[in-house]
Design goal:
Elements (H helix, E strand, L loop, with lengths): L2 E8 L3 H13 L4 E5 L3 H12 L9 E4 L8 E6 L11 H20 L6 E4 L4 H12 L6 E3 L3 H15 L6 E2 L2 E2 L7 E2 L5 E2 L2 E2 H7 L6 H13 L1 H9 L4 H15 L4 E10 L5 E12 L2 E5 L6 H20 L3
Length: about 325
């Protein structure tokens, strides 16, 4: 039986621990299980988080195993290896595919009936493999996708136009990575098309070049953060919390998560991010977008790049 107020997080590295902290503060759940290869690390994180509960509210946080997560409504998988110097992307994918397969096998050995949210990178490929390994329904397995990338783009646009980011409506689709695609054709600020709004804010000249720079800032954001502090984790923790909120509150929110493609936009056999309706049961439906020719071509290129890499993974 599923406990709708219970979540489990697999992997207590920087991302997993940050997700646990963000979810605790959001007070979405009454019980949180932390799972890690090193039980001591999970226990330490649980103890540290629990110290703050008097300032948040009642919640049970503890280190556990996969059987403890069997009745969770959501399992967030963050475990994965970091890329080594000189290692190719395929090498990294292959190593993380082995890790993902081991995790899924342990989850499948329980009576788990909830939702799997894949956060480990490369998220689109690992989500595709997790769905294959698990055999769970497609609505129950999806990735965090470009929810974070979209937030980064909204922030860049907000700074550029000196406007509240909450009034910026845009989306990044495709791969969570170098081939991601910004959808300028649907971008607006409080309903006003971005080019018109830029003119309103005194950016009529050089606007096209500015948009390209905004996109490059988003695309390269993780690299710049890693160069300075070694890893990224706060932003993705907030993205995971946003997704979890949509699940817990049955919001039917539209978010660009990594889902399977079955011919949409001429793409199939791969997971990538397109807007999907997220509710308590997981992915309810994908939302069709009217893309312009350039955006559609880039989205297909993104899908092709991911599919080529998936076909090379053999475990």
């Amino acid at each position: 039986m599923i406990n709708p107020r219970k979540v489990a997080i697999v992997g207590m590295g920087n991302v997993g621990a940050s997700c646990a902290f963000a979810l605790m503060q959001k007070k979405l759940y009454s019980e949180m299980v932390l799972i890690n290869r090193s039980r001591d690390k999970a226990e330490g994180e649980a103890m540290d988080l629990s110290d703050g509960l008097p300032y948040v509210g009642s919640m049970k946080i503890y280190a556990g195993d996969y059987e403890d997560a069997a009745d969770a409504s959501l399992i967030v998988i963050t475990s994965g290896a970091a890329q080594k110097t000189g290692e190719t992307r395929l090498d990294l994918v292959s190593r993380n595919a082995v890790i993902m397969k081991g995790i899924i096998e342990q989850i499948k050995a329980t009576s788990f009936e909830g939702i799997l949210l894949i956060v480990a990178n490369p998220v689109d490929i690992l989500t595709h493999l997790a769905q294959q390994y698990s055999g769970y329904g497609e609505s129950r397995v999806f990735g965090s996708g470009t929810v974070l990338d979209t937030a980064r783009l909204k922030d860049e646009i907000a700074r550029y136009l000196s406007v509240d980011a909450r009034n910026v409506h845009t989306m990044i689709v495709g791969e969570h990575g170098d081939s991601e695609v910004p959808l300028w054709s649907i971008t607006n600020i409080a309903g006003v098309e971005i080019t018109e709004f830029a003119s309103l804010r005194g950016h009529a000249r050089g606007h096209a070049a500015a948009m390209q720079q905004l996109y490059e800032n988003v695309r390269d954001s993780a690299y710049r953060i890693i160069e300075r502090k070694g890893a990224t984790y706060y932003g993705i923790a907030m993205a995971v919390t946003r997704i979890a909120s949509a699940l817990v509150h049955d919001e039917h929110a539209v978010l660009p998560v990594s889902v399977p493609m079955h011919g949409e936009y001429g793409i199939e056999g791969v997971h990538l991010s397109i807007p999907a309706i997220i509710g308590v049961s997981g992915v309810e439906a994908v939302v069709p977008l009217r893309l312009n020719g350039e955006e559609l071509a880039k989205l297909r290129d993104s899908g092709d790049a991911l599919k080529e890499l998936i076909e090379q993974v053999n475990i």
